[in-house]
Amino acid sequence: MASERTLSAASPTDAAVPVADPAAPTGGRRWHLPALPTLRQAWFQVHWFIGITAGTVLVVIGLTGALLAFHEEILDLMNPGVRHVAPSAGPMLTPQQTVDAVLRAGRTERISSVALEAEPGSSARVAFVPRPGERRGDVVYVHPYTGSVLGELQGHGFFEWIESLHRWLLLPREPGRVVAGVLAICLLGLSLSGLYLRWPRHPLRWRTWLTFDPALKGRSFLWGLHSVIGTWALVLYVALTATGIYWCFDAVRDTVDGWAGQKRPPRAAAPARPPAPAKAEPKAPEPAPPDLARTWAVFQQQAGDWAEASLRMPAKAGQPVQVTWLDAKAPHERARSRMSIEPLSGKVSGEDRYADRSMGARALSTIYPVHMGTYFGLPGRVAMLLASLALPLFAITGWMLYLDRRRQRRATAAARAAHGQGVPTAVAGTLAADTLLVAYASQAGQAERIALQSATGLQRAGLRVAVQSVAQLTPEALRTHRRVLLVASSFGEGEPPDSARRFTRLLAQQGTGALAGMRYGLLALGDRNYARFCGYGHALDEALRQGSAEPLFPLIEVDSGDAAALARWMQTLATLEGAEHLALDGALADAGPELPYTPWRLASREQLNPGSEGGPLFELSLTAATPATWHPGALVELQARHAAEAVDAWLAVAGLAGTDTVRLGGQPCTLAEALAQCVLPVPPLHFAAAQACADALVPLAPRTYSVASLPQDGALQLLVRQERHAGGLGLASGWLTVHAPLDTLVPLRLVANPRFDAAGSDVPCLFIGNGSGLAGLRAHLRERVRTGQRRNWLLFGERQSSHDTLCAAEIDGWQAGGFLARLDRVFSRDGGEHRYVQDRLRAAAGDLRAWVADGAILYVCGSAQGMGSGVDAVLAEVLGADALDALIADGRYRRDVY
Q1: Residue from 492, 15, 44, 442 nearest 227 by CA
Q2: Residues facing residue 824 across a β-bridge
Q3: The sheet that has 635-638: what strands, in order across it?
Q4: Which of 826, 820, 821, 640 is nearest to 720 (CA)?
Q5: Is the distance from CB of 147 to CB of 123 less than 8 angstroms?
Q6: Please, where are the H alpha helices in 330-437?
């Protein structure tokens, strides 16, 4: 174990803690410029701002676009037998026959165009010249076989209104185009910012992009729906917005047309109207409709197979008929060719075939089909329909996520204010240089307590002091202070505490001289039982020196809360300038009197994994004469014992009698009892008497285990893995699992573990662990089941499903009762794609992000090496280092690893 047990989440208590400034004026408030957002934060702000403003109007664009995607089919349903009739065996009418049929029906208006389709049963479409003051004339459909006039389409005017709403938002055409273009840019911004915000660490894993678990609920479901459907629709939105911007802005259209070699002629100003003559001149007679028979014959001879054809009548006598047609094998609906034919002579005066056009011209003709989806046939139209209908979905889910985020932020702010953490304490500007900063890197709270107590003493001595966790510090903020004191714990084998990882990473990126002018003092907390004693403290000291910071005094090491080392720290602080009056009579890190060890009876012992390839895992149940209480995540410290056989062997070598009475710690006992609870001295052994041996004994260090039960269970339960070394069984695990008979009294005491405590509200919780780490997770899950909280995800790993499916009946019962929204069991020796916990977690990256986005708290319990470090790496990979640091700072990443 390190100086502080390797369990934690940097909880909100790691935030900066105010220490009064005796020199600061009262009644004033200092204002500081807010920190600039990160690139990701900036994109997030852009995304939500556009979403809650332009997104509302984009709903209208989406719904109208969806209607227009299949408006022809809708019109056919509203007007059966108008645009299409039952095919007949006879030939369909020619354009001239169609015109004659319209004239026979009494329609005397001048005809502007006649459109036909080659598909049998398709009615001919006849359009008339608009009346004065109108933009469009009437349109009638003519039966392709009988020539009867079928009338106009019902609902056509409605879809014209829908098109105006879609393209111009019912505004005048020119300003409406600009507004629609701005909205298209906004939709493009939403699409690209959304892509950036959900970009995964492994973008080639398609499941991460395109799938989510529909069984999720609440914010997780909303986020999954919003992000995954957005990914599916991303390419479509880029196509829609790019083509829409082309139409909405003349500058864009002229530029694109120029690139395609199809520059449009400049718009000519409307000519001024001549003054009205005093006497109205007689109106020129309208030209008689030309005979289309020769024109149609020439067209059919020249064009070959066609699918659609439209003949535009000449506006003046003597002008050619303009024929526009779509080839039967045309790639899309706008791949049209043109031909000008003299109606009297049948001479072709002009021809512009699609196949003969330049590549740029053909590319421009695809813009409309791409926008409508028709370029890709029916699948493309369906895709555009769904993408259009998704816009209201994005607006709804986006608003719900936004409002939920605001609610959570208000709740968080209220909670922090209630605990006194809403007061800013960082000192900036000119005061920073004269303020002594006391910073701490704490894993389980000891470093924080020492920092607070040190700062309080320095403040009382008359110094201006600020206290802050390194979780909220950067090297830039650090070098604004001339003097800095740091209290640093070590995690595991000399690693930084969770709350210090971001600061450590940033500090390593600083070059030589970055901290020049800063002087520091460092107190390193550690445990000599670890190979890298005070490892993080020494690494931090080296990093500060590399940044050209100068030490105020040599690094001070503290072994397991050694009082003498802490006193030396306070004495050293008293030598600092301005701290001459520092009080030295207070003990540091005094968290109150320690609870005494009390005897607990070993009531039962059961092996949970008989036949396993791994070490035997036992469930121990202990009971006490006096009922005790504890919270989920609590620990026990117990005093282990040597096996009686080991003590007897040692006594035989030493030549001493185990029955001799001695005094150990002021209490009488036999020498054998004293040896059982102490480190056995290493030969050669030369003790004059039993008491001399007892006086030389060093007590065994207590062992710490996670509690696997609740007080309501009626017993304190532990999960203990039996360790085996070259010399035999592990001391504590061997005694607990083999040597201690049932009903043995085991001295232990409960230890609060606030950094691995239960969630304070009904938030989602993800429990990750392996092996005996199930103990800490099981207590949490039992409490959540007891209180009816169902949003739980258990991810647990062991060796073999046939032997290591621990607590299977209990866990399966939770799942059947709806208390495990997700259960993942991983067995390393069974093979398969995901052999380890971290592999399964990586494969569930999408769900992991969704749970985290929904406010989930992550609990990790088990081995530090392998599982613990692997899970940590996957979280950084999937969520990003900054997001993981934020989880730690918010107390949502809680670990109990060993």
Answers
A1: 44
A2: 795
A3: 703-706, 635-638, 745-751, 598-607, 617-623, 716-721
A4: 640
A5: no
A6: 359-364, 367-372, 377-418, 430-434
| CA gap 591, 583 in Å, rounded | 19
Contact 774, 796 (CB under 8 A): yes
Show the tokens assigned to 282. Answer: 């007689």
- The model scores a pTM over 0.85: no
Phi/psi of residue 766, each to 5°?
-110, 120
Question: Are 788 and 877 contacting, i.e. CB atoms less than 8 angstroms apart?
Answer: no
b vs e for 480-515, b when ≥16 Cβ sit within 10 Å of the residue's Cβ? bbebbbbbbbbbbebbbbbbbbbbbeebeebeeebb
Lookup: tokens for 528: 């000599």
First vs last C-alpha separation in the chain: 7
CB-based burial, 566-588: b 16+ in 10 Å, e otherwise: bebbbebbbebeebeebeeeeeb
Structure tokens at 423: 């007061």
| pLDDT tens track for 496-523 | 887 788 898 889 888 888 898 899 999 9
| Residue with tokens 């989930």, as numbered in its chain | 856
Say if CB 174 and CB 181 are below 8 A apart: no
Tokens of 537: 């403290």
Phi first, then psi: give them for residue 323, nearest 5 degrees.
-110, 125
* pLDDT at 403 (0 to 100): 83
Residue pointed to by tokens 């605001």: 406
> Which residues are CB-neighbours of 669 under 8 A, at least 6 positions away?
661, 662, 663
Residue 707 CB neighbour total at 10 angstroms: 24
- pLDDT value at 113 more than 70: yes
Q: Kind and range of the H or E element at 706?
A: strand 703-706
> Which class for 305: exposed (0-12), middle (13-18), buried (19 or more C-beta within 10 A)?
exposed
Return the sign of the alpha-carbon dihedral for residues 326, 327, 333, 334: negative
Higher pLDDT, 757 or 190: 190
DSSP secondary structure of 239-305:
HHHHHHHHHH-HHHHHHHHHHTT-PPPPPPPPPPPPPPPSSPPPPPPPPPPPPHHHHHHHHHHHH-S
Lowest mean pLDDT among 25-29, 35-39, 397-401, 569-573: 25-29
Q: Is 457 helix (H, G, I), strand (E, B) or coil?
A: helix
